[in-house]
Specification:
With 365 residues, this protein is an alpha/beta fold. The protein is built from 12 helices and 14 strands.
């Protein structure tokens, strides 16, 4: 049974930003002050495109010219040539067009540097309204398609759909727990619409390979989380197979929330589904899981490095940064540090070439 806590969007996002920015999820110390520093980078920053960030901060909406310019300053300091502004997935009852339009408005302040995505507010909120069976009524399907058509006609043109959520654990009492069957009518409809309009879908899914007890870490963090989690990878593979022309990007790869996101699992998914792509997140894991993309010294762990080398055209970076007017973020710095550890060709492939190809961008690095 799904359980959600419905909160007003701004309250939810403010509190979500607190968690994400408080040392980029699991570090000790605030994100804005914890800095790797330019001295630890090579003399030349490697360019990259950030495919997953949020123009929201602690108590602020980062859409004013001054705040967006601060984003650009943070990007410049870490080699980010372009960034996507998208909304986190909003639970049922929270989504509205105003939340969608803020991303476009922010992107328009720096159109040469910023792209934006649609649906994290309005489309995800509709997905959350479905029953547990995942069966939508004809009225729900029509409404969903109408919302999509409205969003896709906005200016500037969107480059991605998302952030959507199949399973999103709750990080603290005021934060929603969201669980939706990813092989549902509305996810299938979204996949078909994405293929028609040649857009990729950004999917947040805390991966579960078999029924399991919810990690005690999350039970202690929030009463909104259920005691058990149901397998979702088989359903996810059904979504991938539903329309092979739909490009689906698995968000937050390398930040393991359940202990199930292993390099082996992602290897199997990438090997079986040519329309799946993986979005590396340069953040720490919860303390109980060993499957982090980075070790204690911020080095890429061998298993993940081998996987990136095996599938060089299937990975991108997505920092999950919540912009708040600060001009430095550890998430961005870690991504640059990861790029420095790759060969120059592979770093450019993941940082610049892949985002252009996967998201059909009009311009690259």
């Amino acid at each position: 049974m799904r359980r959600r806590l419905i909160t007003p969007f701004k309250t939810l996002l403010v509190l979500s930003a607190v968690l994400m920015l408080r040392s980029d999820c699991w570090d000790d110390g605030p994100a804005g002050s914890a800095s790797i520093g330019a001295a630890s980078f090579s003399s030349s920053l490697r360019p990259w495109i950030d495919t997953h960030s949020h123009p929201w901060g602690i108590g602020t909406v980062c859409t004013s010219p001054s705040c967006v310019n601060a984003c650009i300053t943070a990007m410049d300091a870490t080699g980010v040539k372009k960034a996507f502004f998208i909304n986190p997935p909003e639970p049922a009852g929270s989504g509205n067009y105003a939340d969608e339009n803020t991303n476009a408005a922010a992107a328009l302040y720096q159109p040469s540097r910023l792209f934006y995505g649609i649906g994290g507010s309005m489309l995800q909120s509709e997905i959350d309204k479905m029953p547990d069976s995942g069966v939508a009524t004809e009225a729900q399907k029509l409404n969903f398609q109408t919302i999509f058509t409205t969003l896709i006609s906005s200016t500037p043109a969107a480059v991605v759909i998302g952030e959507t959520a199949a399973l999103h654990l709750s990080y603290y009492p005021e934060h929603a727990f969201e669980e939706n069957p990813v092989n549902s009518d509305l996810f299938y409809l979204l996949a078909d619409l994405a293929a028609t309009y040649d857009l990729a879908i950004d999917v947040h899914i805390d991966v579960v390979t078999q029924t399991m007890q919810t990690p005690s870490f999350y039970v202690a963090q929030s009463p909104n989380n259920p005691s058990t989690l149901q397998a979702n990878i088989p359903d996810f593979e059904e979504l991938l197979d539903h329309n092979p022309n739909t490009r689906i990007v698995l968000a937050h790869v390398g930040r393991d929330s359940t202990g199930a996101m292993t390099p082996g699992l992602i290897d199997g998914l990438l090997g079986s589904h040519g329309n799946l792509y993986a979005q590396i997140i340069p953040q720490e894991n919860p303390p109980f899981t060993p499957n982090s993309f980075k070790d204690a010294n911020d080095n890429i762990t061998p298993g993940w490095l081998a996987l990136v080398q095996k599938y060089p055209t299937r990975f991108v970076f997505g920092s999950d940064t919540f912009y708040d007017g600060s001009t430095s973020f550890r998430t961005l710095e870690l991504a640059q540090k990861f790029l420095q550890q790759l060969s120059s060709d592979l770093a450019y492939q993941i940082g610049c070439t892949n985002p252009v190809a996967i998201y059909k961008l009009p311009s690259g690095c």
